[in-house]
Structures are given as structure tokens and as C-alpha cells.
């Protein structure tokens, strides 16, 4: 298939929340306690909620910035591409990259809303969660319903409230929710107990996909405290490996046969091995552990329930039939440092070489459209959804690399110890 | 290739140390303080060293035992196949499985001798380490030099003593040493500092391969404390993924260009993904982290230095050229619960279907023979080394499954919490 003919739906990108996001959505009663952006003595901007300062935006907002300057920068909105936080500019950046549509995960509340779940005042927090979702669904995604797949956060300190919020957001047309790959690491019950059942039930009832983004346990895998940042970055997809193995032996898939889980930013190249490994463990050990998949193997259960996604993953695509062609989705990861923006179509095209068109269509957009009940073609004619058509609308978008100045932290390698201490104070809690 | 024509060298099996192992090797001065086997009030046998009781042998010695009875059993020698601890019976069990030769990792001192490194009296400990190696090299492996590749442990509390022991054992013909996949988890400096340089230097000088067995960090990966044992077992190979990523960004490969590392029991199916991931991280991040592989990519460095091994890994064999055909080795894992004994040749044959004979030869024995400087054919004519020839010598070996009685711990699933508390008290230290 020609690069220009691809239709790209990315199931994992990120929004840097704009300063004014709560203005139109938070009830008056909570207005002066809503999260807000402040400036510290260094001129760095940060979100404050109750008395907690959210993490630096750093590697989360580097689209268009030279790799030499990656690090904890940028720390101010004016250092970022406006596409990070302005939806109209975002759509222009998507056009420039030929991307039709996108799921946008949260930034300052963390991948699944951890910041709000830590709130002391839970009445405030539930109102903030609802306002966040209203902004995200109605304002951000709602501005371009053919360009965004909405994804709600949940008040995950209370499974009944979670279920209510899943139903409330589903009624607005949102069929995607972000949840933790490992809530036990966040101080909540793990996935093996029935604590979360109201949530799973609401997701099944509303056809809502549960996205577990790597890092959504706030537990950075630390190999060694002296390891440079490269190691921490390289091992993050193993969070998905761990989440998958953990999930497989929970009662969730048995109790909620309709549940769908997406391993966001998990990669796919390791999936064939993981499936073999899980089947092997099942075959060798179920007689003494009592594991029971109703006559199926773990790999069968996986193919029924788990969606996968990748940025650039040649070995995984080569073994796509082992991964499951009907479950593979693509992602761009804008504006994070691992993103392929603005040359995603070219890179992807290379990886897709030799794969039949019908499988390419599944991987690039059909699987995501089906899973998330997303139908952009009802709004925008399909022929205007291709890489070529979208890029033709973006001739004036400047995608050149622009300096944002000296990196915070002095640049250079940061060790796991430094990364944990500076950027994510809770990351060593593991 | 016909199953009977395969020649199998297994680079990862395990010895249950016999009770009398120290008798002929420990200096008189330390004789009454050498590790010894005691019996507790339940009739369970265990090794005691100084005041530390070694972990249950459990899942480590279940060859020939029905899977229904796996768990913390067996806890007594008389529950195990004699092949676990008797070298003559071991060779008969190898014959019955068509296995020519084998590397045997330690059991009661843990995979790299952790028990001895925790000793209070380091003078005692170094004598115990030397006695262990003398027993292993001279007595156990020395009884059948065509059937065992010796593998030394090290006094890893002191890198200079380690270097001395590597040279001492190399002089006896041992070119393999077991070391930790992550010494930081054992309370020692990590791999990113120069602490271990005398050890690496001695390994390069003597052509000794450093084996990092999964679990040799004593750090069990715990997804959730409520997760059943299946999960803990399924995720263990990720220790190798973490060790590999950690190693890659250490200075070791640059400073010691001759070093060879084997990821024992690491599996191979995840390697293509890991290589792509490491290259991706290098390409996207080296400009700001300063990572420098001398113009190479991490995958290039990997192929020069890292040996891999697998038990049964179809996806990895399918992508063997990505893994590196010259670095893949096979393992049997006798007498552990993940072992394929006594039907390894049949299972392996199925996985090798369609692979050219020259590659099969590399994977089944040539890579291991080269890496470990092991030449069984100089002792035993090659035509007597095949699966068919060895099995012909073992017609009287009974490989039928035999009950060992009610499992310790009542059988059934054990959670990560219980496993950690009962079997490996240090496992939650992570």
C-alpha cells in the first residue's frame, strides 16, 4: 500500500492540559480549589492540586524539540509546540503527520488520574475528575469529533464511583477509559480481588475498553540506582508484560467475559514470547496451582480480551499472526520523546512492507475503530482521511526542529536515582 | 534432522548437592563449620550454613514427580529422583533424555552462591567456595568429563578474590562462572561502577563465560502480593530482559571487549523485541543522555557479547536470525519444574522443524561447545553422542512418573506473598 493511502488512527498520544481547562467545567463551589498552573522561582510552570505539585512535563512534551535538549525540559508552555496543549494546533500537527485520529492520555494528573486519587478532599476530587472528563470529551475531543477518540479518567479510589463515571461518560459517547496497569503499586487493592468488580461490570455494560498505559502504576522499574535514564526508558514496556501476566491469572476475564483491555504503549514484539511463556507455565503448573481457564490456554484468553499497540516494531509485525492481527493497533505517542512525529507514515510504511492490504487496514485503523466504537467516516469522507489527503491540508505547518534552550538538569545522562528523585518523587516506592 | 541424530548440550541444568559434597574438599580447619544437611521437626531436610537455613529445594527437584504434587516439595532427598544428587544416576537420566552434556547450576547456595556471600566469617566462606568448586569441577563434573561443562561459583563479596577464583578454576579447565543478573539487589554495587573490574578482567583473560541465571538477583518480580504462583513463574524471564538492558548501558562491554555473558534460562522469544527496543531508545535518546556505543547500536554490541538460551521457544526460533543464530543455546532445566525431561528431544525436534541442519547443529551443541571451550568428542566418539546412541545405553532407566506424597504447604495455589515468605525470605527486598 502507498504511504499516502494509509489511514492512521493512533491509540496513544498525550495532551498537555491547557491552563484554562477547568474554567468551563468545574462547579462554582470548587472553582478556587481546582488544579491550577503556577510559576516557581526558576520560572518553571507546574500544576498544583491541593498541596501537591505535579511532576515536570519534561520528556512528555518534546515534539519538535532537538533530542540534545531532552531531559526534564520543557517546563514552560512557551517552550512547547502549541500542538501539545491547543486542540486546533494539535489537529494541524496531526494533519502534518497524516494522522486521522488519536486517543489523548492525560499528563498532569498522570496516566490514569493518580494525582486526583491522592486528594485529601474526595468530594473536591470527584468534581475535578468529572470536570476533567467533561473538558476532555466535550471541549477537547468534541471540537473535532472525527479526529479524537475520547478516553475518560476514573475516580479510582471508589469502584462504585468509577462505575458511575464510566456510565456517565459512555452516555456522552466515550468508550475508552484509562486505568492502572497495577493499582496495588498505587496503594489500592490489586487485580486479584473482587474490589474492582463494579468498574469491570460498568465497562462491559457500556462497551468501554480499559486502557492500561505503561507507567500507569507510577512504578518505574529500577534495575540499578546507578543506571542511566536510557535503561529506565528501555525497560518501561516490561510494565505491560508484568500487567499482562498478572491480569491473566486474575478472575477478571472469567467473571467479565465481555471485558477488553488495551496495553497502551506496551509494544508488540514481546507478545508472542509472552503467550508461549504463559501457555508453558499453564501446562507445566496448573495441576498444582489450580489455575483454570475453562479448558482454554492463556493465549486463547488473550486473543479474546487483549488489544495491543506499537509505535515501531518490526519483529512484532513479522509475527503479527502470533500477536493477533485483529488486536494490533498503531500509536504515534505525540508529543512524547518516543514519538515518530512528524514522519510516522514513512516509518510505519517501511515496517508494513509486505503485509497484505487487508491486514494493514486492520492494524492502522480498523481494529481501533471497532474496539473504541469510533466512526470518523460518518463525519469525514473516507477519501479525506488518508495520509495524503490530511497532509495536503497541512502545507503551512512548520515541522522543523526548534531549540527550547538549555535543558533543565544540565542535560546529560540522569541516573534512575536522579530521575526518580527529581521527576517522579513516588517512583521508587516499588 | 531426525530426532535420534540430534546432539544435545544443555547449558542450564541444576544439581541438588549431595550431603557429603564437602567431605573430600573442605580443609580440616573448617570441616565442622562447613555447610551441612539437617532434619527439622517436620522431617524436612535442609542445608545449614553458619546460622542460615537455606531455602526449600521444592520446585527445584521435581523431575519425575507428578505436577499435582509440585509446590515446596520435595523437602527430602528420598523424595527426589537420585539423578538430582547422584552423578552416576544423573548421567543415566541424561542418557534417557538423549542429552550429551550439561551445565549444572548450584541449588542450596542459590544460583550464584548468594548463601556463601552472606557469611559472617569470610575466611570460612572463601574456603567453602573453593571446596564447592573443587567438588563441582573435580568430583561431580570430573567423574564424566565428556558429560559436564563445569561452572564455578565466586566469592562475590570481593572482586579480587573473585578474579583469583576465576583464574584458579580456569586452570582446572573450567570456563564458565555463575554470577548475579543484578548484584545491586544482593546488596552489592551494581554493574555501572568499576567495582567488578578485576572479575571481568579475569574472565576475559581466561576465556570464561559469565552466566547470569534468572533469579540470581534473589529478587523475585512481584506484580501483586495476591498474585498466584503462576504469575511469579511466568514473569521470571523478565529478570533477563532487565539484566540485558542494564548491562547494555554499563561500561563493561566497552572496557572488556572480550567479555561473554550468557542469559541462562532467559528464553529467546523476547530478544528480537529487546534489541529493537534498545536500538530505538539509543536512536531517540543518546543525543541527550550521552550514551555512546562507539558507533555501534546496542543490537550490534549484543551479538558480540551475549549468549542466549531457551527450553522451548517456537517464536524465538522462528526469529532466530534476529536473536543471533551463533549465540543461541539450548537447555533442559533438569530437574526443575520447567524442564522438558524426559521428552526433550521430541519437543525440541518439533520446535526445530524446518530449520537447516547447520543451524540446528549450532543451536543444539556447537554454540555451547565453542563458548564454553568444551570438546566432548575428544573423549567420546561423536557417533556415540547422539540422542539415539545415548538412549540406547539407557534402556533400563525408569522414567515413569512417581508420587512423592502430599505436597508441603497443602498444594494448591500459593500467592506471591506466601511464596516469598515461605520459600525465599529475602525475595521481597526488591
Structure description:
2 copies of one chain form a homodimer. Chain A has helices spanning 87-96, 114-117, 122-140, 159-171, 197-206, 229-235, 238-248, 252-255, 271-289, 298-305, 314-318, 320-323, 344-352, 357-371, 387-392, 416-422; strands at 8-14, 36-39, 45-49, 52-53, 99-105, 148-149, 176-179, 209-213, 261-264, 306-310, 328-330. By secondary structure, chain A is an alpha/beta fold. In chain A, β7 (176-179), α5 and β8 (209-213) form a beta-alpha-beta unit. In chain A, the strands form 3 sheets. Chain A has a 5-stranded parallel beta sheet with strand order 7-8-9-10-11. Chain A has a 3-stranded parallel beta sheet with strand order 1-5-6. A 3-stranded antiparallel beta sheet of chain A has the order 2-3-4, with no helix packed on it. Chain A is globular, with a radius of gyration of 21 Å. At the A-B interface, α6, α7, α9 and α11 of A face α6, α7, α9 and α11 of B.
Give the topology.
Two copies of one chain form a homodimer.
Chain A: E1 8-14, E2 36-39, E3 45-49, E4 52-53, H1 87-96, E5 99-105, H2 114-117, H3 122-140, E6 148-149, H4 159-171, E7 176-179, H5 197-206, E8 209-213, H6 229-235, H7 238-248, H8 252-255, E9 261-264, H9 271-289, H10 298-305, E10 306-310, H11 314-318, H12 320-323, E11 328-330, H13 344-352, H14 357-371, H15 387-392, H16 416-422
Parallel strand pairs in A: 1-5, 5-6, 7-8, 8-9, 9-10, 10-11
Antiparallel strand pairs in A: 2-3, 3-4
Helix pairs in contact in A: 4-5
